[in-house]
Amino acid sequence: MTNPDEPLFPGEDDAAPVAAAGPAVRDRIRRLAREQSYAVLCLQGQGQPYGALVAFAFTDDLRHAVFATPVSTRKYRLLTDCDRVALLVDNRPEKANALMEVEAVTVTGRARQIERGAEFARWAGLLVARHPYLEQFAQAATCALFCVDVVRFLHVMRFQEVRQWIPTNGS
Questions:
Q1: Which residues is 94 bridged to in the sheet?
Q2: How many CA atoms are closer than 13 Å to the CA of 154, on its beta-carbon side?
Q3: Cα-flanking dihedrals φ and ψ of residue 71, to 5°?
Q4: Which stretch of DSSP H or E encloses residue 24?
């Protein structure tokens, strides 16, 4: 189930197939997205990877995520240079003594900056509803808001069980 708009790694067609997610995995993805407050935002620039911690919020249908960042950061510059991103959400803090119970989901998609106005207010409202302590930060003139249009979720359990879910209007 590869989306031609977002290829996997070169040569991945030869790798072990990723299984499609059933309802139970989609529920696990929803739970991780709801219960975890932070994600690692994965970016790239000039051929180099970069990771940054962000507070995030997803829409109810999980087709979009939102986060904020100061405009004076490397993160902002990299986001404006390349819109392809990944968010890694996991439950490591809750499972410190139960390594095989750790779950993670990698969310891939395209990030776009939200311009100030009605759409900005809507996305900022979603983020602040989940993270009230970010209200002043999100509204600051020195802060940018980004929406990630989700392409796929890759859910991993027990370090090797990988399931893919591509959200659609009907799922």
A1: none
A2: 16
A3: -75, -10
A4: helix 23-35
* Number of structural domains found in the chain: 1
Mean pLDDT by 10 residues, the chain (171 residues): 45 51 81 94 92 96 96 95 94 69 90 96 97 96 97 83 76 57
165, part of any domain = no
Q: pLDDT tens digit string along 106-120?
A: 999 999 999 999 999
Rounded CA separation 56/15 (Å) = 31
Is 11 part of a structural domain of the chain? no
Measured CA to CA in angstroms, residue 80 lies from 50, 54, 101 at distances of 14, 16, 36
For 95-109, write each residue's pLDDT tens digit: 566 767 788 899 999
Give 84's contacts (C-beta < 8 A, 6+ positions apart).
Answer: 6, 44, 108, 109, 110, 111
Q: How far is CA 79 from the centre of its chain?
A: 13
CATH for 91? 2.30.110.10
Given a contact cutoff of 8 angstroms between Cβ atoms, the answer to whether 104 and 86 are in contact is: no
The boundaries of the domain holding residue 142 are 16-159
- What's the pTM value of the predicted model, to 2 decimals? 0.84
Domain assignment present for residue 166? The answer is no
Distance CA 138, CA 144 (A): 7
